[in-house]
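INFO  loader      accepted 1 record
INFO  loader      residues=947
INFO  predictor   begin
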Amino acid sequence: MTLVDAYLGALKMMESTGPRPLRQAAAFIAASPELVEEAELRAHLGAADPNDELRRALSLRLAIFDHQAEEAAWTEDTPPNTRERREVVLRLLNVEEETASLLGDLIPIANLDEPIVIADKWTPWYTEDLKRSRDFYWQHYSESLQAAPHWDSKAITALDKATDRVVERLANPTAAEAYQAKGLVVGYVQSGKTANFTGVIAKAIDAGYRLIIVLSGTTDLLRTQTQRRLDMELVGQENILRGIKPDDEAALDATDYFRDDPDWDHFVRHGVRPSDGGGSDLYRLTKKSFDYKSLELGISALDFPKRERHLPFFHPANLFAGNTRLAVVKKNSTVLKKLVADLNKITTRLEEVPTLIIDDESDQASVNTSRPKPLSIEAKKKRSAINRHIAELLKMLPRAQYVGYTATPFANVFIDPNDTEDIFPKNFLIALPPGPGYMGARDFHDLNLDIPLDERTKENSAEKAHVRIVNEDENEQDADLQRALDTFVLTGAVKLYRESLGRSTFRHHTMLYHVAMQKDAHREQRAKVKEMWDRSGYRSASCFERLRDLYDTDILPVTRGPDGGAAPSTFDELVPFIGDTVNRIGKTGHPVLVVNSDKIEGEELDFATDPHVWRVLVGGNKLARGFTVEGLTVSYYLRKSRQADTMMQMGRWFGYRADYRDLVRLYTTQALYDEFEDICQDEEFFRDELRQYAPFGVDGSPQITPSQIPPLVAQHHPKIKPTAANKMYNARIEQRRTPMKEPSSGYPLVSDGSSLQDNTQAFLPLLSSAVAHPEVLDLDGRSVSVLSTQVTNEELVSILSQLHWVKEDSFRPDLNFLRQAKPDTIADWYVVLPQLKGQDAQVTIDGVGPLSVHRRRVINGKLQAKSQPADRSLVQPIANRPGSTRGGMLLYPMVPKDATIQGKLFPNDVVMAFTLFLPQASGATDGKLITWTTKDSSLPDYALVSV
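INFO  predictor   done
INFO  writer      dumping tokens
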């Protein structure tokens, strides 16, 4: 028995008890108080690295205690993740003052991002007591994550919280009355959705769900990847081997993973047969090597025998003694048809079987696209094949819960909510935050970066660090592709250098070449990339001058930035690792692999069984959705799309890049880069809107339900729609009562001179008044010059009512709210025009001035007219004062970035952009931030406006 063993055992005891005196518990386990002195514990923790077993276990247990719901008695009603909660925890652990101080330094209170939940009313059943008493699969799953180096305590605690939010909104599997919940979980592209639904499945099995169906994309690659992940992290060795004796060579040969998977030793071990340890034995209806096949394992494998035959299967006496069936199936009509047919053959009454259907990539194939228009009740709705089979499963399994997972939810929320057999998420929509270390939109785009363009560098700009612009002319792109290949080689060499330091291990290293969807084009592209690879001179010193320049000007500067890792200070120090990199990439003689079917030229792409995949991957749809490209470092992307969800799913460069995020590069054209920035803003807008409406109203009711989500979808790019047109849902917002209003996507196009002129002239009286009142304000210790004025709400509404918008509804709901506001909620507005230095500061507009104009980028004719985040502090505190009836307005006369200004501008040269901060007193007294009207009388009552 060691000190580590004793304290690990003490922490294990506290899983069910909550915090208890730590040293006393360790001493009890060690049977020797001298072995577990706190001074020795502090010495161990102080010398340990973050991946030390005891430090990780202690971090996880403290994070769980910090995040525990207030209903637990030991919390003394302290709020989660606060200093008050941590003080209670440390007092109950009864640690010495020096230990408490060390724990505070090593394990700070986790500041967890909460999932955003939009849900209808629900009946709580998944209590802390139930969760603690039935946690077999969740406990082993979370322990397997704890052993993984890229999962820290904060990430595991966040996953625990997020999966609770899903499971608690499913139906109680033991309830007498059948109920079918439907929900949607929205993550970011490659942000950990599989980890979330694995956790949901674990908790659902523990709670009593006995049939688990995972619809895993439309390709064999994705289905196989998902099957292995679930087998490795959830199913475990005992359920896979099913009691096979160690000397039964024939049986072991027939078992997947045991012989050929290099990670078999890392598959979760339950220690016992699950049914002997308080869990449910898990039978797989599919394996890594085959999808669901009719009667493959005999129809009895799909049946659910009852221990107490006189009781229904969902009764606890049967349910918790029953086995669980798991099927991971591809969204293929033939496969699903077989599953539906076999379910109809089993002897158990299907209406008694608690079932969980997980639909991965639920916006792909699952959504009905046959007939977008709603039909009468009497009419039979024609459905596309996959949607029809899902509807059949839901109809024949009344206790089935449907949970869709996607990073691009627009197609799902546009489903007709009146179609009760469809997959509209009527009960809940949960938006997951990205986990620690995720590389998302803000790691590739300088969204609202408050640094002048000419001052941005690889150290302070995401774009300059990670994005390299490719020439729009196809005939001039060879040089860009050469740089991308060179970057792939150099970043591989840096990874090997980091391995030599013992800091990391990089099993896979890949480059994605994604230019076209058509399979016929992929072989030509492979030949093109292979030809360039062959003449790049990587196996001789002839390439060194080219590589040296790229390393010194690109790779090395980014490694010295905020997210930088270890790298040689000179190219010469890196040279020894270049040869090994080139050998790994070219070891098969085919450094470039086409991936548009399971096998190409005798090869199969399998990140699980291949110990090292160091390749350039050429592909289309197979590498564009759901499938994780392991080790992806360089992306060369030139493929276009006119749908935001399709484009976002092709953004494989988003994801977790542990220990090499500084090496990640995206090569694309300026047009495509700008389009991605627009759709990233669509995504952020959707989440920001959800975040505003997530809190319950003052009466305890949801402010909005999932049925009211569709109007919250934005479209920043005029030519890129959120999803396919036949999936768009028809609804209109009547009033929007949000506290901040920035209609940046609604201003007229810069080519619409007539509308711009009218808008500018509407604001001229306000500009004239502000010019007469210059001020110098203090902003975080620095002086800021502004022009300012004050207007009544009635006067401002009069100005805003004259404005033209690119779409009628762009600002109408906001104006409706401002128009009906009483003086005791919005009396007046403090208007501020931030001023600049230089030639852009001395401009007149239609004779009014001097004042500053602000330059912004134009994309597809639309000015990117957003306020500067730093400027918001000039007016927001005024609006946020308790009881304030004075709002704040930032006003920006804006022009295109490349506009020529000769001291004066005409009204049609200017986009008048503004941001409003509503006063605190204007908050909706009924708790509703949004009200509705309908354009379709068939919509339910929730959409009727109430003003």
